[in-house]
């Protein structure tokens, strides 16, 4: 459906039928995707495949019936209210149905655990409540990878098509780039999404082939490619990426970086426009930040644990890239690396990649705008009569964008604090509460501490904490304000 925002009628409640129609279609597509792990389970011969038949039937029928019931309300465009509801509703409905294979399957998960796992997958967070992954049916492992892969492509499209229109967290700065610039090449947003999907699929296939050449078996290469390119971080082993060493870590770091770049640049690149890729300031800042942190951590790691320089650099490169991009793989238990590096990992997870990528967290461009705004204010203090304009990529930035970015930072910090307090009230210790809130809102995956750190998982947390963290994943994935707006009085009034 082409997104065309229409002025909402303040005298009426929003028409939910267009929203229900799209959500129903996406739920049905999710059900169809369950047939792929079913085929894998049939090939494995463990008799687990009926789980996916049962889950697929329920999901496809539910999605189909919702779409049919709402089909008579489908119109050409969506109002702002409908777009907000659709963006949030999709990321609530899909985990509900995506949890079914975990409930019916060999994990026999309680619904809270199954929903947590599905939400973690579709938001590409990578936190898990499952253990003994090596013993699970291959269909379930593939399903975890598919959830993250679908979530990755979904958030790229949302970031390119929806969030700029909704003016969420400063994303409106990319509106002209997503539509005007791209419109010269591709006339409709649907075509933009189509090309991005092709690039996403191609990158996944190249990643899988690279893993295969470097020593992974075909199944591991496929699943880990799905979760690398989506920067999701689900692995097939309890040791995460620690089950693989050497060149595989370097290859994974390369593809995590590639997935952290704006996919619109790849679209422009294949259409003959290479200059925007090299000129993009957020790409330069992202790469410089990553390399500086990797260099610092390599030196500190080498001093703490004398070993070959290559080993220190490889471990630092892989784990820093994984946490900074929000992938959440771990190739080592960095909780044993000392207080300095542990603290660095906490703050690294709050950086994120570039806007319009599969990555999560605050993202580089917001830090650029925040520091540019601070610099402007300092110049105004020195020269009260001067006229100063914040610029981003050679373009003047309006006050509405700066206000939106600063509001995002405020909401992020406040939400982080409130969620950490709420988690502590459930009985969790300070480190687990704070890092759990941070990893959920930043969609990183592992937290800090022995329980939810890189060597643990989230299975031991109480049910209330799991629901809170699931909410945190949703808020973080949809840039906070896209969800908060629904709970304001003016949203339903206007």
From TrEMBL:
<dbReference type="InterPro" id="IPR004772">
    <property type="entry name" value="TrkH"/>
</dbReference>
<feature type="transmembrane region" description="Helical">
    <location>
        <begin position="239"/>
        <end position="264"/>
    </location>
</feature>
<keyword id="KW-0472">Membrane</keyword>
<keyword id="KW-0633">Potassium transport</keyword>
<keyword id="KW-0406">Ion transport</keyword>
<dbReference type="GO" id="GO:0046872">
    <property type="term" value="F:metal ion binding"/>
</dbReference>
<keyword id="KW-1133">Transmembrane helix</keyword>
<keyword id="KW-0813">Transport</keyword>
<feature type="binding site">
    <location>
        <position position="125"/>
    </location>
    <ligand>
        <name>K(+)</name>
    </ligand>
</feature>
<comment type="similarity">
    <text>Belongs to the TrkH potassium transport family.</text>
</comment>
<keyword id="KW-0997">Cell inner membrane</keyword>
<feature type="transmembrane region" description="Helical">
    <location>
        <begin position="340"/>
        <end position="365"/>
    </location>
</feature>
<feature type="transmembrane region" description="Helical">
    <location>
        <begin position="83"/>
        <end position="104"/>
    </location>
</feature>
<keyword id="KW-1003">Cell membrane</keyword>
<feature type="binding site">
    <location>
        <position position="443"/>
    </location>
    <ligand>
        <name>K(+)</name>
    </ligand>
</feature>
<keyword id="KW-0812">Transmembrane</keyword>
<protein>
    <recommendedName>
        <fullName>Trk system potassium uptake protein</fullName>
    </recommendedName>
</protein>
<feature type="transmembrane region" description="Helical">
    <location>
        <begin position="401"/>
        <end position="425"/>
    </location>
</feature>
<dbReference type="GO" id="GO:0005886">
    <property type="term" value="C:plasma membrane"/>
</dbReference>
<feature type="binding site">
    <location>
        <position position="444"/>
    </location>
    <ligand>
        <name>K(+)</name>
    </ligand>
</feature>
<comment type="function">
    <text>Low-affinity potassium transport system. Interacts with Trk system potassium uptake protein TrkA.</text>
</comment>
<feature type="binding site">
    <location>
        <position position="232"/>
    </location>
    <ligand>
        <name>K(+)</name>
    </ligand>
</feature>
<feature type="transmembrane region" description="Helical">
    <location>
        <begin position="52"/>
        <end position="71"/>
    </location>
</feature>
<keyword id="KW-0630">Potassium</keyword>
<dbReference type="InterPro" id="IPR003445">
    <property type="entry name" value="Cat_transpt"/>
</dbReference>
<feature type="binding site">
    <location>
        <position position="124"/>
    </location>
    <ligand>
        <name>K(+)</name>
    </ligand>
</feature>
<feature type="transmembrane region" description="Helical">
    <location>
        <begin position="467"/>
        <end position="492"/>
    </location>
</feature>
<feature type="binding site">
    <location>
        <position position="327"/>
    </location>
    <ligand>
        <name>K(+)</name>
    </ligand>
</feature>
<feature type="transmembrane region" description="Helical">
    <location>
        <begin position="146"/>
        <end position="166"/>
    </location>
</feature>
<feature type="transmembrane region" description="Helical">
    <location>
        <begin position="285"/>
        <end position="305"/>
    </location>
</feature>
<dbReference type="Pfam" id="PF02386">
    <property type="entry name" value="TrkH"/>
</dbReference>
<feature type="transmembrane region" description="Helical">
    <location>
        <begin position="198"/>
        <end position="219"/>
    </location>
</feature>
<keyword id="KW-0479">Metal-binding</keyword>
<dbReference type="GO" id="GO:0015379">
    <property type="term" value="F:potassium:chloride symporter activity"/>
</dbReference>
<feature type="transmembrane region" description="Helical">
    <location>
        <begin position="21"/>
        <end position="40"/>
    </location>
</feature>
């Amino acid at each position: 459906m082409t997104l065309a925002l229409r002025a909402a009628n303040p005298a009426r409640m929003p028409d939910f039928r267009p929203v229900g129609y799209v959500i129903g279609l996406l739920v049905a597509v999710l059900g169809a995707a369950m047939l792929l792990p079913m085929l894998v389970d049939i090939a494995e011969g463990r008799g687990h495949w009926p789980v996916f038949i049962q889950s697929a039937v329920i999901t496809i029928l539910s999605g189909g019936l919702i779409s049919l019931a709402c089909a008579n309300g489908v119109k050409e465009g969506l109002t702002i209210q409908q777009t907000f509801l659709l963006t949030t509703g999709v990321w609530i409905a899909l985990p509900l149905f995506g949890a079914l294979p975990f409930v019916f399957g060999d994990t026999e998960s309680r619904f809270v655990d199954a929903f947590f796992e599905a939400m973690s997958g579709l938001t590409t967070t990578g936190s898990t409540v499952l253990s003994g992954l090596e013993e699970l049916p291959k269909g379930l492992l593939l399903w975890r990878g598919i959830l993250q892969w679908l979530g990755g492509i979904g958030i790229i499209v949302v970031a390119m098509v929806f969030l700029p229109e909704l003016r969420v967290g400063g994303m409106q700065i990319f509106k002209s780039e997503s539509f005007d610039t791209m419109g010269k090449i591709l006339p409709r947003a649907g075509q933009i999404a189509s090309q991005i999907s092709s690039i996403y699929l191609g990158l996944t296939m190249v990643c899988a082939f690279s893993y295969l050449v470097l020593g992974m078996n075909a199944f591991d290469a496929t699943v880990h490619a799905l979760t690398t390119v989506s920067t999701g971080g689900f692995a097939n082993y309890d040791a995460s990426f620690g089950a693989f060493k050497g060149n595989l870590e370097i290859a994974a770091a390369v593809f995590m970086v590639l997935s952290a770049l704006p996919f619109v640049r790849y679209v422009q690149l294949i259409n003959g426009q290479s200059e925007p890729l090299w000129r993009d300031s957020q790409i330069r800042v992202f790469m410089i930040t990553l390399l500086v942190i990797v260099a610092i951590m390599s030196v500190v790691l080498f001093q703490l644990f004398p070993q070959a320089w290559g080993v220190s650099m490889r471990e630092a490169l892989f784990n820093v890239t994984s946490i900074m991009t929000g992938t959440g793989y771990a190739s080592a238990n960095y909780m044993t690396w000392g207080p300095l590096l542990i603290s660095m990992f906490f703050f690294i997870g709050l950086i994120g990649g570039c806007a319009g990528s599969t990555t999560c967290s605050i993202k580089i461009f917001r830090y650029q705008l925040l520091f540019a705004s601070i610099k402007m204010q300092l110049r105004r203090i020195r020269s009260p009569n001067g006229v100063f304009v914040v610029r981003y990529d050679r373009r003047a930035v309006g006050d509405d964008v700066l206000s939106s970015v600063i509001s995002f930072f405020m909401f992020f910090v406040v939400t982080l604090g409130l969620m950490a307090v709420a988690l502590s009230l459930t009985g969790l210790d300070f480190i687990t509460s704070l890092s759990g809130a941070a990893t959920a809102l930043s969609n990183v995956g592992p937290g800090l501490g022995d329980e939810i750190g890189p060597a643990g998982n989230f299975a031991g947390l109480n049910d209330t904490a799991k629901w809170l963290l699931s909410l945190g994943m949703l808020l973080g994935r949809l840039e906070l304000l896209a969800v908060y707006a629904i709970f304001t009085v003016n949203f339903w009034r206007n």
